[in-house]
Amino acid sequence: MNEYKLFWRELIREVVSKESGRSIDLEEIIAEIPPRPELGDLAFPMFPFAPLFRTSPKEIAERVAGAIKQDHHAETTYRKVEVQGSYLNIHLSRPIVSASILTRINKEGREYGRNSTLAGSKVMVEFSCPNTNKPLHLGHLRNDTLGMSISRIMQENGAAVLRVNLINDRGIHICQSMLAYREFGGNSTPEQEKLKGDHLVGEYYVRFNSWVKDNPEAEEAAREMLKAWEENQPEVRELWEKMNNWAIEGIEDTYRRTGISFDRIYRESETYQLGREEVFRGLEKKVFYREKDGSVWVDLSDQNLDRKVLLRSDGTTLYLTQDIGTAVQRQEHWPFDRLIYVVASEQRYHFQVLFQVLKLLGHQWAENLFHLAYGMVNLPQGKMKSREGTVVDADDLLDNLVSLAGKEIHDRERAGEVDDIRQTAEKIALGALNYYLLQASPYKDMIFNPAESILFTGNTGPYLQYTGARIASILRKFRERQASFSPARVKPELLTTEEEWEIIKLLASYPEVVNQAAVELNPAIITSHLYDLAKSFSRFYHDHPVLHNDDPDLVVTRIELVNSVLQVMRNGLSLIGVPFLEKM
RNA sequence: GCGUCCAUAGCUCAGUUGGAUAGAGCAACAGCCUUCUAAGCUGUGGGUCGCAGGUUCGAAUCCUGCUGGACGUGCCA
Questions:
Q1: Å between A558 CA and B35 C1'?
Q2: Among residues A97, A247, A296, A407, which is most buried (max CB within 10 A)?
Q3: Residue A46: domain span
Q4: Do A264 and A323 belong together in one domain?
Q5: Nearest nucleotide by C1' from A418 CA?
Q6: Angle, alpha carbons A213-A219-A221 (nearest 5°)
C-alpha cells in the first residue's frame, strides 16, 4: 500500500507546488486512509495549504483534483479522484492493485511481509530471566511471549537476532527454598511426589515464608547458607545443584510447551562476579567514588537519578553490578547494534541507572541499550500476591485452557474431524493465551481476566485459528475438485465486491504493519491487523461462495485470493505465537 | 515528599503519531445453519475520551494545572 501512498503523495506534491508557486516538501503531503471505505482508498487533507492559497481547503482540493485529472500519467493507477469536503480522495484501480498483490503474495509466499529495513544489524533480546526457586507464573508468560514475538518481528525486518536468557539461579531467595527443603523435605524427589521439579522447589519456597513467620532465625540461617554457597561448601553446593536442576528442568518443560527458546543461556551463578572490574575502572576514571566504609557509589543526582551503590562495603556485588558486567560480556561475545531488555516496568529506574553507568564508563554502545518496560499483569481482584496465594501459575493456567479447549472441541462436535484432539486443544490454548497477552500495548498494565481469556469467540487467538482452518478447509475441497474447474484462469478483474476489495487492501498493507511493529516494538500492531483481516475474510465468505460458483474463472480467482489470505495469516501468526491449525 | 507511567462504552482493549460521524470484543437484546466448519455472520442499544484551561483551521492525541490509580525512590532482585 505504501507504494501507492508514495506515488500519490509525490504527484500531489508536484501539483500543489505548481499550483501554489511554492516548492512543497514531500513531508507536507499527508496521506490517510478515509474513515469509511466508500470515501475512497486514500485521502489527502488540504487544510494545511489554506494559508498558502489564501482560499478554502475545499477549493484547493478542487483545483488539485482538476489538475490531476488532466495528468494522463496517473490514469492507470486510479479509478477516480474526488473531492470530499476539504479532502482530496483517491479510489485506486481495483483490478490493477488486486492483480499486483495476488501475484506478489503468490510469488513471495512465506517471504511476503519480510523486509530489509534492519538488514545488517545485530539485535540481542534478553527476556524471561526466571528465578530457580519457583515455577513460572502469568507475569513470566507475558514476558516470554513478548520476547519471542519481538525477536521474530525484528527478524522479519531483516535483523540478525540473538535471544538470550539470564537464569537467576543464586541468591538469598534460592537459599530460602533450599533451607526449607533441607528442614522439611525429607529427601523427597519430583518423581516420588509426582510433581514438576520447579513446582516442588516452589513448595519449599512457600514453606520457608510461612516458617519464617514464627521462626525469625530462619532468615539468618538462609544468609549463612548463602555464605556457605559462596564459599563452595560441598553439601550446600550439592543441594543447590540438585534443586536447581529440578527447577530448571521444570521451567524448560514450560518453555517447550509454550514454544519459547533461546540462542544463548546465561546463568547468574556464572556471571554474578562480573562487573566488579568495571566498577574499579570507574573508580580509576573518577566517575565513581568510594565511601569511608569501602562501598563504591555513583552519583547521578544531576540527572535526577540519585546516588546508587555499585559495590557493598564488604566488596560484594549487587544486581546492578552484575548487569554492568553481563552487558560488557555480551558486547564482547556478540557485538550487538542493539540490546533490548524485556523486563517489567517496575525496573525502569534500575535500567536508567544501568545505562547511565555504562555511559560513564565510556561504552559507546550504551546508547544502543533499550529497556522494553512492559506493564504488570493484574487480576480483576487486583495485584497477584505470592503471599496471598493469588499468583496464577503458568502450568495450571495452560492445563486449564487446554481442558477448556478440549471441551469446546467435543461440544462443537469436531472431535471426529480434527486429527489429534489433545494436540489441537494444546494449540488452541496457546493461541488464546499468546493472543490475549499480545493484543494489549506492551507498556501498559493489563488485567488478566481468566474467565474472559479462555473465551474462544470474538477478538481472540482461536478466532484467527478458526478463520485459518476454514480457509484451509476450502482449499482442501478445491484441490479435491480441481479437475472440474479446468480450464480456468485467474482474472483479478472478477474480484468486484466491496468485501473482496477490503481484503485486498489489508493484504497490501501487511508489509507496512510488519515494519511498524518493529519500529514501535509492539506485537499488538500485528494482532490487530490479523484480526481485521480475519474479520474481513469472514464477512466475505459468508456472503460470497468460493467453490459453489458457475464461473470457473471466478472460482480459481477467489481461490487465489483465499490462498493469499491464508499465506498472510500464516506469516503473521508465526510472529505472535499463535499456532496455525489445518483443522479445528 | 520527589520521579516515571497510566486514565477512552458496564467490563477488556484499539484508535493509522494533530484530521472526516471515536472503533472492536465481551456482556444485553433481535435475527441468520437443505449451500465451502455457527469457535461464524447481520442488526439494536451503550461515550462530557478523568476534570479545567491553553496551542491550532482542527485535539482522545501536543502543553499546563488538578483529581484518581500503578510503579519506583534498598549496601533486595
A1: 17
A2: A247
A3: 2-92
A4: yes
A5: B37
A6: 130
